[in-house]
Amino acid sequence: MSRTNGTAGPLVLGLETSCDETSAAVLDGGHRILGHVIFSQDIHEPFGGVVPELAARAHLQKVDTVVDQALAQAGVDLREIDVFGVTAGPGLIGALLVGVCWVKAAAFALGRPWMAVHHMEAHLFGPSLENSEAEPPFVALLVSGGHTLLLHAERWGEYRLLGETRDDAAGEAFDKAAKLLGLAYPGGPEIERVARSGEPNRHRLPRPMLRRNQQPGDGDYYDFSFSGLKTATVELVRELERKGALDSERAHVARAFQEAVVDVLVSKTMRAVEQTGCERVLIAGGVAANGRLREELTARLGGSGRLFHASPRLSLDNGAMVARAARFRYDRGETAEASGSAAADLAFPGLTREYA
Ligand code: KG4
Ligand code: ZN
């Protein structure tokens, strides 16, 4: 296929509106980023979390501009797009519907196929946009505001679920701890920033589901839980408040909290590495932007292992990963039905639940 702008291969437009980022990307052949725009909504900050109704409305106000800017960057006209991809779930239903309706309308008007992309599968593709070696086989740790999944992939599209969270997601835990400490939303980057000047062991917080004597056959060997850590953090913060010491201890608490989360995430990931014999690890989702998590995983993997992660821009929610995932689904001959829609709890395609 030759193009007026000299590109080759199908042009894929990916749209992401599942939470609080409105993002669109145009990819050449579904791999090379030609245009990419991410608009992060800042209206939620006063509420300490994403307000679904506000998110949906803001997506609606912004979606046309974001798509137009991505197309302009790419030097491509909407009519030249061959394949559309959109996050169809999981996420906030009102927010998801904005993207899905936009893409369905465009695909229908232009007579092109559209792919209903799973948000967490899209995150898996993030690192491959920057590094062609970020391909299966790998053990993947998917850590975002809504999910904490540990899986093993022999190839794209076939994912063996090893563990998941039983309560809060890792990003959610960061956000809640940040709120307790009086830090802004989203909490993950704030905790990381404040923790830089904190001592790791001045306060000790629990490492839930990380008993030393756990065996691979135990149901909780790979699973995560962050609610106990949250309770322990609440108690610690209250005690410091009573003593009037929260201001002087904030950085130390943030550091202790981050160490506890990182320790659990890394330890469980290393269990998966040992059990599968796969020393290639991919981390994705918003929490994968955490420097301490990357540092600790790199150290524990040692010289023989490989860690793949995307740059922060492609770790957070973005349209490029959606376009990349859409290309993969397109190559497999899949297209969404005309009646297809968004689903807040969309099932992860190709995921088998097989605990150790
Ligand atoms: O993947 P993502 O952008 O959106 C969802 O799909 O949820 O992830 C957002 C989550 C938020 O909970 C945010 O606090 C967390 O990722 N996050 C971080 C960092 N940057 C973002 N958590 C820890 N450290 C970070 N540097
Ligand atoms: Zn995400």
What is the topology?
Blueprint: E1 11-16, E2 21-28, E3 32-40, H1 52-74, E4 83-89, H2 93-110, E5 114-118, H3 119-125, E6 138-143, E7 148-155, E8 158-164, H4 170-180, H5 187-195, H6 227-242, H7 246-276, E9 280-284, H8 291-301, E10 306-309, H9 312-315, H10 319-331, E11 351-353
Parallel strand pairs: 1-4, 4-5, 6-9, 8-11, 9-10
Antiparallel strand pairs: 1-2, 2-3, 6-7, 7-8
Helix pairs in contact: 1-2, 3-10, 4-5, 4-6, 4-7, 5-7, 6-7, 7-8
Bound molecules: 5'-O-[(R)-(carboxyoxy)(hydroxy)phosphoryl]adenosine (KG4) and zinc ion (ZN).
5'-O-[(R)-(carboxyoxy)(hydroxy)phosphoryl]adenosine is lined by residues 19, 144-146, 171-172, 174-175, 186-189, 192, 285-287, 289-290, 316-317.
Textual characterization of the structure:
- It is a single chain.
- With 356 residues, the protein is an alpha/beta fold.
- The protein has ten helices and eleven strands.
- The strands form two sheets. A six-stranded mixed sheet has the order 10-9-6-7-8-11, sandwiched between helices.
- A hairpin with a 4-residue loop joins strand 6 and strand 7.
- Helix 4 runs parallel beside helix 6 and helix 4 packs antiparallel against helix 7.
- The longest helix is centred in the C-terminal third of the chain and has 31 residues.
- The mean pLDDT is 94.
- Zinc ion (ZN) binds next to helix 3.
- The site of zinc ion has 6 residues, from helix 3.
